[in-house]
Amino acid sequence: xxxxxxxxxxxxxxxxxxxxxNEQRHLLLVKPTYRDGWxxxxxxxxxxxxxxxxxxxxxxxxxxxxxxxxxLLCIDYQxxxxxxxxxxxxxxxxxxxxxxxxxxxxxxxxELSEYRFIELGDAINLxxxxxxxxxxxxxxxxxxxxxxxxxxxxxxx
Length: 157
Hints:
Blueprint: E1 12-21, E2 27-32, E3 42-44, H1 51-63, E4 71-78, E5 86-96, H2 99-102, E6 112-118, H3 120-126, H4 129-144, E7 148-151, E8 154-155
Parallel strand pairs: 1-5, 4-7
Antiparallel strand pairs: 1-3, 2-6, 4-5, 7-8
Helix pairs in contact: 3-4
């Protein structure tokens, strides 16, 4: 039997996004400077960092806000034939941001050009196709107090 080496093991990219709402229950989206479309706050999980730690770090870096992760909403396994690697996306719920908290939002200008609170139906039109499938499921998980596992944005269980 052949010995598996670490370099032969599959490499999957992990990323974490955070659902943040305002008091009207509109979704917070950010507009990156480095690609088209809008995203949830979040980003790549770094080496030796958990997805939850990455979510907290990214919200702090991108919005200048320290939030508390309330729960995991969904995990989405993405396999895109045109992408260089598989991707596993974790979406967490970070709570409702008060008007007071929103006053402290500061974006890193080299990374994000703006943020916006937007109704879910309108948000879908701004998100990339993968996020446009994943985000409504994450909101459904929040409303139904469930956690979903997805593959390419489709609920598996």
